[in-house]
Amino acid sequence: MPSPDPSRPVRSDARRNRDKLVAVARAAFATDGTVNGTVALEAVAREAGVGIGTLYRHFPTREALVEAVYAAELDDVTAGAPALLDALAPEDALRAWMDRYAAFVATKRGMADVLRASVASGRIATPVTRQRITAAIGAILDAGAKAGTLRAGADPEDVTLLLLGTFLSTVDERDPGRTGRMLDLIVDALRVNR
Predict the structure, then answer these.
(1) Low-confidence residues of the chain: pLDDT under 50
(2) What's the CATH number of domain 63-190, 1.10.357.10, 2.60.40.1730, 1.10.10.60, 3.90.226.10?
(3) What tens digit of pLDDT does each residue of 57-87 get?
(4) pTM above the 0.90 mark?
(5) Which of 84, 135, 142, 177 is deepest in the core (most CB within 10 A)?
(6) What is the residue extent of each domain of the chain?
C-alpha cells in the first residue's frame, strides 16, 4: 500500500479520521494493550467510527499506528511544561509534569514489543525522544531556579536519568504508590532548602 504524499495537503475529513484513530488507539493501548499485549485493529477502527480500510490507509501496519500513538503522547508530555508553569509554581509544575511523564511511560508497556522494534529499526529515535523530555525538564528547572524554589545548576539530563531509573525500577512493583513516592523524593532533592 503506497504511503500518502507528504507534499499534498491532507483533507480535513481525513485529518479528523486519523486523529480519531489515534485517540481511540491511545485509549486501547493504555487499557487492553497492557492486559494482553494485543489491541485488535478492527476494534480501533470500529470505535473510531471508520472502516478497517480507513485505518489501513492511514496506518498500513500495527507498527505505524503504535508509532503515531507514541508520537502524539510524546507531544502531549513535552508540550505540557509551559502550561503547567503558567498554572503552578515551578516545583509543583515539575511534580505534575513528572506524573504526566510517568503515565506516558506506563502506557507504553502494552506497546513495548512494537516500540522496541521501532527503535531498533530507527523509525523512533531514542536520542530525539530523550532530548525532548530533557528540554521540557530543563524549562521547568530554569523557571524554578529563577523563582528561587529549585536548585540552580541542576542538570536536566541527570533528572531525566533519575526519572528513567525510577520508572525502570518500579515496572513490576506491587506497590502502586512507590513511583509517586520516588518522584516526590526527586522533587525534594531539587528544592532549594529554605
Answers:
(1) 1-2, 34-36
(2) 1.10.357.10
(3) 999 888 888 888 888 888 899 999 999 999 9
(4) no
(5) 84
(6) 9-60, 63-190
